[in-house]
Design brief:
Layout (H helix, E strand, L loop, with lengths): L1 E5 L3 H13 L4 E5 L3 H9 L5 E2 L2 H7 L2 E4 L3 H14 L5 E4 L5 H7 L8 E6 L21 E3 L1
Parallel strand pairs: 1-2, 1-4, 2-3, 4-5, 5-6
Antiparallel strand pairs: 6-7
Helix pairs in contact: 4-5
Length: 142
């Protein structure tokens, strides 16, 4: 199974590490607009492969938007447009009202699952990621 994680900071990186711990067979595809985050994520083993947004979504059964809410608002409809048949899109954004309004009329809205993890730290970036960040934490499905 291929999983694409967009945004390789604290949440995206921790989500990736948690998946690698639990799903040994999963292949994690990473997307990040910051070259330094890409390099760090690969060096830390957060991802198996760095890809473009288009490549990642096209290959993945699950795509996770682990980016700031304002970036989710810009990327969610283009991501849904690229989503293959039977794939799922989710996000780890901290607010959902605006995201819900943006997605509401999209023809693939039924393949989007809004998640709100109740977890985090004061740190950021790939180097702050750790496998246990989301373990035994509440994940609100909106």
């Amino acid at each position: 199974m291929k999983i694409c994680i967009v945004g390789l900071g604290l949440l995206g990186g921790s989500f990736a590490l948690g998946l690698k711990e639990k799903l040994k067979y999963a292949r994690i595809l990473g997307v990040d607009i910051h070259p330094e985050h890409q390099q760090m994520a690969q060096a830390l083993g957060l991802v198996d492969e760095l890809v473009s947004l288009e490549e990642g979504i096209a290959q993945a059964a699950l795509t996770v938007l682990a980016i700031p809410v304002n970036a989710i608002l810009d990327q969610i409809c283009p991501a849904l447009d690229l989503l293959p048949e039977n794939a799922v899109l989710t996000d780890l954004g901290s607010t959902k009202a605006l995201i819900g309004r943006v997605v509401d009329q999209h023809p693939k809205r039924g393949r989007y699952v809004a998640l709100h993890p109740i977890a985090g730290t004061e740190n950021s970036g790939p180097e702050a990621a750790f496998a246990g960040l989301l373990k035994n934490k509440i994940m609100i499905v909106c």
